[in-house]
Amino acid sequence: MVTTKEVATGTEPAISPADDAARFQQLQRALRDRWRSTDEFDTQERHIVVVPSLSLDQEELQKIEGVNHYEERLLFSLIRLRNPNTHLVYVTSQPLHPSIVDYYLELLPGIPSSHARDRLTLLAAYDSSRKPLSQKLLERPRLLERIRRAVNPAQAYMTCYNSTPWERDLSLALDLPLLALDPDLLAWGTKSGSREIFKRCGIPHPIGSELVFSKAELATVTAEVWEQDPSLQRMVIKLNEGFSGEGNALLDLRQLKAVAPGNAAHSDRADAIAAAFSDLSFQCDTETWEHFSAKIPVLGAIAEAFVEGDHKESPSVQGRITPLGEVEILSTHDQELGGPDGQIFLGCSFPARPDYRLKIQEMGHRVGAELARQGALERYGVDFIAVAKGDPAAPEWDLQAIEINLRKGGTTHPLMAMKMLTEGHFHQADGLFYTKQEQVRYYRASDNLQKPHYQGLLPSDLMDIIVTKQLHFNSISGVGAAFHLMGCLSEYGKVGLTCIGTSPDHAREIYDQVVAALDESTLP
Known about the structure:
Helices cover 32% and strands 24% of the residues.
């Protein structure tokens, strides 16, 4: 088993005693009867508690503007309300604006929004502190009792954004099974754990180091990786836990030629690397080596070769391990990465390029099968770097697996939006998505459409602009734009969107039209 220090969220809950661990496993077995795929039209009574807690390192999360609104990203879970006897409880840190909730309910096809609204319970902790939402709920026994009273405990389960000991303790406190990873398996979703899974599955991945917990060790293992491949130009220094690439930094080896392998002793090389850490290129413009390095003893860090290439893509594959133990591929994407060195997730396009999407589906399934053997459950994603080789007109693609995410990620909610709007399904044989009418659809999505002049826009203003330009999703044509993270818009000038089209170019065209419409309405 991979060893790593437990995920840090500031103050961790006490480790559950053996009897609680046994009770948690007993609760998890109930998922086999209570869970149904969103692809099914289910008429049975179901009760779902959605806790969109971002139970990640809270200091790392604060690097993301508007992160306090990211609990909205799971509002696409309201797709479950299209099943007429499903009841859903959605809990947040602060109350959701009614217009945002109404927006999602009105997107539901085939059911009156009022019928769905009667089966939706919204609850809030009224707490804007930097604690994870799950911790806030555990600190409020009366709120927990309200959640219990809102569901039929014999038919209910809980789902979340990511799973940590907080979510396990919340599952036990509510006496509800948790549709998520057992936190004891979190190590497989870390940077070091991902590398171990890739090794076991025989999946190509960049050379890298073991997990270390001190600056001195990090310099030593970085030197060792360089010695494995003296031609390396850059290396990525990664905190073992990160979010959207914010925990990555780039080390430029070209500035250290004097101590390159063959030019200096190992100890001199490690010393020079240690000194160069203060000049790392960070993906967050407010990050410093002093702050970054303070996380190393807590989270651990690895060094990994940076994949070079003149033409690179960043595809990913998403899968699910069901409570029945089945591994399903859900989607592929080409990710749009930004930041100083292209390490931060900005958005994605579905599906990934036809050149390699079936290949990454196959590798993603291998990863899922290994995770299932370890006892993992629910969503997982595998990120790759694809480098074009040979003829630019018909390149061969070198695929390198980069990391595994054991949570709902930035590519989860765009797919949920597509499913909600079209009632369609993903077809694994060709990697395409088909609507209920068997028409192929594509999308371009982003969490980070952000411009200063969008600040001050309310969700209602956004709708006025988009409807006037006839860009909102049209259920008859099956194309258009749908929005999320609307709570970020007024304060941060930031919004998320999924633009669905009949081809990749059409989806990008709708995206560009949305941007142009917002710019036209807000620029002086």
